[in-house]
Amino acid sequence: MYYYIYDNYLVEKKYQPVISKIESRLTDLGINGKIIRMSVFKNLSKSLNEDIAKGIKTIVVVGNDQTLNQSINLIDNLNLPIGLIPIGPNNNIASIMGIPEGEAACNILSSRNILPIKLGIINKKYLFISYLEMMSDGVYINCDDNYYINIENRKDIITISNIYYGEYEDKLPIKNNTNYLNLIIKNQIKGLFKAKKESFSHFKAKKIHINGDKSIPILIMDEKRIIKTPIKIEIAKQTINLIVGKNRKI
Amino acid sequence: MFKETTGSTHETDTIIGPSVKVEGDFVTEGNVIVEGTICGTIKTVKNLKVGPTSKIFANIWADNALIAGEIQGNITIANKLELTPTAKIFGDIKTSNISIASGASLNGKCQMAESKNKAVRPEFSKQKKIELKSQTTERE
Predict the structure, then answer these.
(1) ipTM confidence score
(2) Cys-Cys link to B109, which of A115, B14, B82, B92 (CB 3.0-4.6 A)?
(3) Does B103 contact chain A (CB < 8 Å)?
């Protein structure tokens, strides 16, 4: 049995034609199932995990990167195959995984090409699949318990990623390998009359400890969270079995 | 080495930028580019490139190295070590192949790995010493 998690934003009228096309295609393929919608007011976790216990064999996330990230934090049993139907903007994970947008993603679902992906975890609680960002102000970093990184500039941007996409992709030697985390530090010097200068640092690590004097605001895939230090970010024991396309980049 | 890959950093695994200071044992299996400061040790089984603005207070182990910055510590390179005109080394070097550009400064011992295969000194002690002074006086 298939179980579909729809993001809240799909209620908007502009997405209705795409959704109806997807639903009819899923019925044609014989992989339609129960639909549950994410909501700010509803705690999905309990009802979702009860339904999974009743014998659901595949979970499909319909939405974008954030929907997938929220879903993996709701599901207790991550051994189940997870499908993704990308709709709308912010669907970078889908493009890395070779999943086309909208109706075409249904064919990928039915082919069931499964790839295990290791997740990142923050303070052994919050799982993440792609990246998080923070400012370097008052932050001390320890990698793999071997070396410390001190950042001289307070306005540097720190990015820690599991699966990476974004502005540094062409500038840095980032390979999407989920066995380690990429730590990127971007330094930007802006002069009044000078053109801005950028420099980057890039490290690979399995465990990253972040210490600081105060709580640190962290952006996890554009979702802001304030986390108290010390923060421990590492490769999680949990993996997700993501249904991917043939044109994946990982 | 690094000369072939300049312009593209895609074969490099670690970059230590100019705004960053690393302290501790930095051990990696990939290529390393250093533009910042390091205190401790650096070990890599591949190539190391040290930029002109970098300062390293560490002992270094690498396969190949191209050094343009300042290093205070001992350097052990398995293959080739290249010192550019801006390089400043305060420590001993062990390598099998070295290239020192004019302007580079090296303050320490340099030991080449092939020194074990050096030529054997012939035993001159058994031969009679030639007294040059006496020979010249006889001619006169």
Answers:
(1) 0.83
(2) B92
(3) no
